[in-house]
Amino acid sequence: MIMKLKLFPCLLLTAFLLTAGFLSSNAQGGARQSPKMTATGKIGEANITITYSSPAVKGRNIWGGLVPYGKVWRAGANEATIFETDKDVMVEGKKLAAGKYSLYALPGEKEWQFIFNSQTGQWGIERSGETTRKADKDVLVVNVKPQVTSSMEESLLYQVNGKGIVLKWEKLEVPVSIK
């Protein structure tokens, strides 16, 4: 009986340390709620890469709710979304020099803006909930039209195709022409 009483605190301490270690490792490097994704492709001679974190709908109201209309959005979750091109391209008829940019969006019910910003590497939002976008670092702003679709895209998805890029999420697609 005495042996059991001495063993109990050791088992309790071991269980505590294992639980604390598990929670710590999950918080620091475990699975993300919004996994990091990459979309790549070629448009003309340019190699395009979009690096973003992909949130899921999870039954939430996305457009005009989780992502408000009329407010700059980091175009993904976690870190600011990154758009890279190794050649100069024309985005919606406007020149964008080869380089690496943070990609922000300003969603609207009938029209969106995509914002290519020269500041990169920052987290996507401040503690206040505002984006980390510095407007004086904007390189290019283009207007595009969102399209309602009949198919549901549970997780945010970017695609690069021969005509440009497309953001797909929930029941919305937002194409951006690139040449």
Description:
There is one protein chain. The protein is α+β, with helices and mostly antiparallel strands and 179 residues long. The chain folds into 2 domains: 1-30; 36-177, no CATH class. Helices cover 16% and strands 45% of the residues. The chain contains 1 helix and 10 strands. The protein has one helix spanning 2-29, and strands spanning 36-43, 46-53, 77-85, 89-91, 94-96, 99-106, 112-117, 138-144, 147-161, 164-177. Strands 1-2-3-6-7-8 form a 6-stranded antiparallel sheet, with no helix packed on it. Strand 6 and strand 7 form a beta hairpin.
Key traits:
179 residues, six-stranded antiparallel sheet, two-stranded antiparallel ribbon
How would you summarize the topology of this molecule?
Blueprint lengths: L1 H28 L6 E8 L2 E8 L23 E9 L3 E3 L2 E3 L2 E8 L5 E6 L20 E7 L2 E15 L2 E14 L2
Antiparallel strand pairs: 1-2, 2-3, 3-6, 4-5, 6-7, 7-8, 9-10
Keywords: Signal
Protein name: DUF2911 domain-containing protein
Tell me the number of helical segments per DSSP (H or I, 4 or more residues long): 1
Number of domains: 2
Question: Helical proportion?
Answer: 10-25%
User: Looking at the structure, what is the overall shape?
Assistant: globular
Average predicted confidence as pLDDT:
87
Alpha carbon gyration radius: 22 Å
Strand line-up in the sheet with most strands: 1-2-3-6-7-8
By secondary-structure content and strand pairing, the structural class works out as alpha+beta
Strand fraction = over 45%
